[in-house]
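FAQ: What does the model actually see?

It sees only this:
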Amino acid sequence: MGIKLPDDIPSSEITPKEQYLSRRKFLIGSGVAGLSLGSGALLLGRGKSSAEQAQPLTGTRKSKWTVESLGGDKLNTKSEITTYNNFYEFGTSKEDPAENAGSLRTRPWTVKIDGEVEKPQTLDIERILKLAPLEERVYRFRCVEAWSMVVPWLGYSFKELASLVKPTSRAKYVAFTTLKDPKQMPGQATRVLDWPYVEGLRIDEAMHELCLLCLGLYGEVLPNQNGAPVRIIVPWKYGFKSIKSLVRISFVETQPDTSWNKTNPREYGFYSNVNPEVDHPRWTQATERRLGELRRRRTLPFNGYADQVASLYAGLDLKRNF
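And it is asked to produce this:
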């Protein structure tokens, strides 16, 4: 019998997180865990050690992107944000990253920035942390599987990093690459994707104020399972565009390959803007389920950021260029 991966499951069938946790608690408490969960107890221990690595990020400041700016949405809890993730480098279920990401070593860490730039550089993570003032930005985060959350990310606009290397006029796109190391990222031993994970943006998207070079959440450094030590957040696009655990950023002249588009171009386009009018072939995108809620809510065009980013796509057919 074949294993059913998360992308094969309609969003309407996704088990609410609270229900999953209550079942797990019952299994562990009743002693059934030893029979049915196998090594699950060991994995839970690894996840806990990963969480214990959390360190506060000091000197951060508030931004205009607050809960209030979202018109009444409320923050998801830190527990929800850090225990329900897509990060296939650590497994294909939503709980796998929190359980397995303790193997990732985030110090030392460097990011190579190259391509069509005047000043190519390799920066260590401490330099990246100090390159610009860190802001708390509360963004909606929408997964292609039709679940969403509201997260207080910490970081600064990607354009601050770009200004350091000075892209040339030939730079039309930005290509991003995740770490490839199966010893640290056991999911890379599988063939679920062609590793390393790669993503890309048009340069005007990357240079938009909303595009965040993200270094933390909830006042602390990024947990491993959320993309430590540095990732991108593009709040108007589906979550898989917000690549994690960056090791390379290349400014390029032609549209770069992206992992999910290479794997299944019929279902995952290069742009992947949140668009309630363009359904995924296997489920609707017109509605979504916010973590912590049972009801479904209407999906907003560009995830609610149309006023800020719709002009980037003037004249572009967003159904053809999905």
